[in-house]
Amino acid sequence: MEWTMTANTPGQVCLMQGNEALVRGAVEAGIHFAASYPGSPSSQVLGMLGKIAGERNFYAEWSTNEVCALQACIGASFAGGRALCIVKQNGLLCTADALHCAAQHGVKGGLVVVTSDDPSAHSSTNEFDSRWQAVSAGIPLLEPTTMQETKDMIPYAFQLSEELGQLVLVRVTTRVCHGRGNVVLGPLPEQPRPLQPVREWDRMVCVCYMHAPALEKLEAARQEFETSGYNHYSGPEQAKQLIVASGAGRLYAQEAVRRLDVEEETGLLSLGTLWPVPETAVLERLRCAEKVLVLEEVDPFLEQNLEALAGKHQLSITFLDRSGAGIPQTGELDPDNVTAAVSALTGAALPEKTVPEMELDLPEREMTFCAGCPHRATFFLLKKALRQEKNPGIVVGDIGCYFMAGQAAGQYGFQVCNCMGSGINVAEGLGQLTNYGLNQKVVTVCGDSTFFHTILPGLVNAAYHQANMLLIVLDNSATAMTGFQPHPGTGLTAMGRSVKPMDIPKILDAVGCSVETADPFDVVESEKVLRRLLQKTGMNVLIMRQLCATLKAKEQKRPVRVWVDQDKCLGDGCGCDKFCSRVWGCPGNTWDFKANKAFIDPVTCVGCGVCAKLCPSGAIQVEGGAEK
Amino acid sequence: MKKLKFDPLNIVVCGIGGQGNVLASEVLGSAMTSRGYHVAIGETYGASQRGGSVMSHVRVSETQELSVLIPSGEAQLIIGFEPLETLRIARKYANPDSTIVYDPRPVYPSGVLQGSRNYPGLDEITAAIHALSAAAYAVPAAQIAMDAGDARAANIALLGAFTQLPGAPLSREDLEAILSQRFRGPVLELNQKAFARGCESVEKGGDA
To answer: Which of the residues B19, B35, B93, B113 would you substitute to probe the A interface, choosing the one with the greatest number of A C-beta atoms within 10 Å?
Structure first.
């Protein structure tokens, strides 16, 4: 809840989401500056910071991309400011060059980078492990388990960053970001401390001779971590069977040890400071251990480091890796797989299952575009137009809600997708080969937020080299996938200021592309434009402009009522193959299994009315249409 | 602090993105925190607004620091916004002592509408939900909310029904007080109406 972010009531216990705990930690640390690009699971952090930035007298920005965000934070740090950069796993990789250079030139004001990993990819296209970046760049790494630790680690990370003159990476995972727990509030500073003017001979420059001092900072961090309060041990003094856990794994392990009643004989070492590994503290436990289970998420990061440490000290230890412990190689930890792993470590019997087995086969619920989403219409039209070409076309995807176009939601609409901002470049490569015997139309898509994030350089490249391709900009005026954060096309900032929006057609025009704009809800006209542009050579752009359905639903009452006249619907006998519910696939278009006719779910339908234009029997009726 | 019948008390709130799942679990969790309990909530909502399955785990203890996920078979209470999702969750998390309250209104997954998957018969789902629990109450929450003026209040109607379950940690009065703190004007009125009808639907005996 928002009041908990700025309440000056030290000692009060609140229920906080992990993302809120990060915000509260930043406020308690007295930050001067925060910057981010939205990425789940940590998307909410900067949105909340933006709302309270005025009251707490700091600056917060939704940057155009993660590189802008981190480098802006480096600027703030140079003036002695405390700067917080929030990214997700993929965003951190975008910043890799900036991160590595910053690690060499160091920082002045504290600079903390929070990176959110998404084990099991609940709200991502993949699962990555951010922790390797700390090793590669040579910077300290922390990872919290509870919401309390999440809050407390932020001020601590700033203090550490300033002590060392080095940036600090804090890794969180989905179970922290999207979890909630009790947090005891700490005191708030009156004001962020004054900035320090940059003097003529101050330097933060990345040059090779800074590598050695960076290594010294890392060694100083290791020494500090040896006695850190963020690492705990519980269990017998000389545990032969040892669990080493970090992040979410720690609480699962604590409960599993209790559930299996093996607390007496099992040691649990919880680590909150992950890099550099506090070797002396860990060795103390490894020396008596015979069998070790490491509980961590995504890659065997700690496991490999602990194995190396054991090898260096010639300790004879059996490490249970994920497969040895019965945990799947990919995906997140949970209470069940951790309990099974602790059973494998200790030999304790698993509790008996009380749930009866059941034959019933339950269908999965696939993700789909929202009811009334303009992307559904665009991908439907694109598929239709490409099917009318002599040769099959190639569609290159990109990252945003429209990533779902690769599934049934978008008529299995694209064949290739790399990372965010990649579509234009992959399409440029293919487009160039159309002059070398590749006789296919090449199309790529991007959203309006992605356009600014990373499409721009690719656009310059593709236009300059005159690739034969069509870029469709899916302009729904929103960063919809992550929760409607403002971007340069929206005319708004994170702190709620109105600014002049960037005009996508003008940018495209300046780059020298041929641009047309269409409304995906006007299916007849849009299809004509699309088919015309597919026939043109060179670098063409079609802007499909229609407001995001969820945004529209927030802004206005349902403008129209859309319903099926079941007397007109021919049901199974129509020959349309249940077009509305089966092919078009909007969640509003469902089926009345009793009448065996189409039906529109009034709870879900947002009244875009596009299905009425497409129904071959004209059975779908649209009533009203006046704005509220 | 009232003694909990179960410690930890484990509640699953499940449904489909956009049904107000997260709000329902957050309201429960905040109320228990302000009563002095340790609370942990885990929300699984990757596809929150895009039609995917969504669940929240709410865990309450007098003494223990808890992880945000419930082990399988250890939920005492399940609140379900859709029958298929309720069964999916019951199959994993229920035990013979669990109590379930759910909306029996089906929302068909896209695979079912496309004809590639089959949605089990409602009677089969109902029978399975009952077989997996000590008691199950079917409450037409979406219908109650639509009658009250807006389908979006279905979560509040279901919370009303929840307060009437044996073993519910919060009373009708507790939650009424929270609603009037959180909402104002017409939204409050709508929620109060939906909440009251939700309470009554189980007082009357529901479909146990």
So the answer is: B113
